[in-house]
Amino acid sequence: MISDGWEAVIGMEVHVQLSTRSKMFCSCAADYLGAAPNSNVCPVCMGMPGVLPVANRVAVEKVLKTALALNCSIPEKSKFDRKNYFYPDLPKGYQISQYDLPLSRDGWLDTGGARVRITRAHLEEDTGSLKHAGDALHTAQESLVDLNRSGVPLMEIVSEPDIRSAEEARDYALALRQLLRYVGASEADMEKGQLRVEPNISVRRRGDDKLGVKTELKNLNSFRALYRGVEFEIRRQVEVLSGGGEVAQETRGWSEPEQRTFSQRSKEYAQDYRYFPEPDLPPIIIDPGWLDGLRDELPELPGPRRLRLLREHGLSEQDARELTAEKATADYFEAVVAAGAEAKPAANWVIQEAPAARPEHLAAVIRLVAAGSINRDQAREVLGAAASTGADPDQIVRDRGLAQISDEAELGAIVDRVLLENPGAVADYRAGKQQAIQALVGKVIGASQRRANAQVARRLLEERLGT
Amino acid sequence: MRRRETTPSELLERQLHDIEARDEQVGAFLRLTPKPARVQAAEADARYARGEPLGPLDGIPLAVKDVLCVDGVETTAGSKILAGFHPPYDATAIARLRAAGSVFVGMTNCDEFAMGSSTENSGYFPTRNPWGLDRVPGGSSGGSAAAVAAGMAVLALGTDTGGSIRQPAALCGVVGMKPTYGRVSRYGLIAFASSLDQIGPFTRSVTDAAQVLQAISGRDPRDATSGDRPVDMLSQLEAGVEGLRVGVAREYTEVEGIEAGVRARVDEALLKLESAGAELVPVRLPHTDYGLAAYYIVAPAEASSNLARFDGIKYGASDPTAGTLLETYLRTRRHGFGPEVRRRIMLGTYALSSGYYDAYYLKAQKVRTLVARDFAEAFKDCDVIVSATSPTVAFEIGAKTSDPLAMYLCDVLTLGGNLAGLPGISLPCGEAEGLPVGLQVLAPQWREDVALRVARAYEVAGGIMSRVAPS
After folding, report:
1. Residue A444 domain boundaries
2. Of B25, B193, B253, B263, which is least surrounded by CB within 10 A?
3. Looking at the 3D structure of chain B, how many domains does it have?
């Protein structure tokens, strides 16, 4: 993928909207999607004169839980700082963020293959958003400010430049999303802007230990865009450098329609944000008891859980990975096994069918299939009925007369009738057309109102046709 | 009013009449709010008629410094940039006074965004001292001090960031108190310097000040820096000074530029406290000079950030001729802010800039810690520290406008209390050159009760009550 002799060096900045009920510093709803412009606002998140922020404790706890899950160290004292800059979507003229005492530092995240070191995870507030009237930004005559998003809690997770490819970048983002969902920090939906991934990308000659000039990539609204954007940017930089040019330090956007990156903003002159401690908020004192309580609330994390499923249930690596992709899936699978199902068929059912039935109902259905009482088609029907009516699968099987016919005497009578009624197929089979037996099995199943055990029917047919 | 000799409405009408008679000369009010005031007064009338007043403040007219948001009333922080701004919310202090039955007569003049010591930096017009119309009333809460001094309000609210309540109280001959940082919620106070600002009362007696403070103090869930401490401003008020130790700091009594008349009145006041039973003890405040420098770093730094929201985008003034975003910012702020505000924004921006942060802001914060330590040490040997509030009596209008540094020196005896977060009260202690002199009583954090008790004891022993300035 990447030209020989070159190496990409990538660090990730990820902004995560936390799934709290209220905003970071006021009581407006944190869920702003779909609200009419400037309807989800109050004097605090509009930056009116004289009003004050009050920190959302749940947001702080979600960052701390994420930090614990990322193996970060957490200080005894943290604080908020003001990051000062002017922009119309920033109503106070500063963003409340964290500068030199973030809520956590120095952790790591194991992705598919690589371990990526985490520099820090801190808490800040989201900005509002701008709507530009017109077809394109540079021709827009007016820009409108919508502050519905202003003040939504935002966690920023910064990684060390430990990533070397587009694939690793995507794996990192996937692993992070999985972790965020496990700890309940965020829905982390990229399309909804809840997970904003900004890779910092540079390339250098393999073997070089000096870092190249980096670009920061924005507007990546899906994992696919992330992969393609990073891939494009690596190739672009290698081409520039191979051609004797220089990479400009800048922010670049990903254009989905054009499938390329484009220059957005030069970073040649670093903006001076004049950080200083936020005087409106007292420092956050993190006492060990609080942290212990949060640690106790953490669920088993995806990595350890995958290993445990492998160990306890003898599943394949692939199955264990798919089952632990989402916490809810793994919880469901384990509940089905706990209700008495065999692990392997339980894994197949959960992965392939993702049934909506209660775990004990799926366990019962798996037992019925294993006992040969119902076939797979019937099992689906039973699960559907169990999910919609809440009735017990055994009861559904009895009520609907679904039990599979495996009894040789009962099935034998049907087989005999089918043979008499289908002389053509019988003749074909006897003339050597092996596949004609399949048609006869189908007839038997049809004549039994789909209740026939297909294997038993086939054997009886073969016996009677003298093979 | 309890004795039904008058009613809140009668009191309000008399007050409005007095304002009409005197304020053209004094200029204490930026705008009056007779309509909502009459509604409030009528409600109070009904409560008194039923024999169910809400408490001692019910039906009493109160003037509000223009930096405290009053729901639906134009609030501008004395600045053109906020002209026309009607906050849809009450400051917490206002809400508490509203609940106590206060009648809000109007918004008082102040230095723009509370930046100044003379009220000459108002974006609208200067206020004159009722004791001498060629003199400043002090600042930044000069309008509130002048309103109470001229009998145009019984009570007023001000804010104090470096002395902005105490210094005008001293210059206008009224009582003014700045509480402990965190005692009164800052919610709805248009911020100047968030780590220093506090709201407090102007009154004509120590007891009234205690009553107002009692009503506005206490934890507010909307201000994370407000303290959760018991509030008792009243029970020790009459306890006297017998056995109390009154600290006297040489750095304050011999401060540069202190006028002889001021010093004489303060010395007499100290003797009166001594004869009332207090013990005078010398204390040291060695970092006083550095405190002034630190204050003029920290306060502008915070202000530069606090005032960033006035950008012409959301509310207040906006320059309609601007063609681009940058022009909107530059023109709105250049025309909307006065020269002193622009000066402090520049000072503060510079102090926070990368490469200068350590040398200025960080150093200033360290000095602040040292100043707080000075007071902590001093309070090991005394219960209160008593001094002049201002080194001078009210100066002539225009005397210091061309010399910002001279103006900054007005706060040298008061801003230490802000840097250390201490409560302090200023009360009249006589006159010099025919103008009022103020006595400052500083107490340890959360000990407003001790400061009030000493102030009240002086009021009794000294026999000097605040009186309305003759017109």
Report:
1. 408-464
2. B25
3. 1
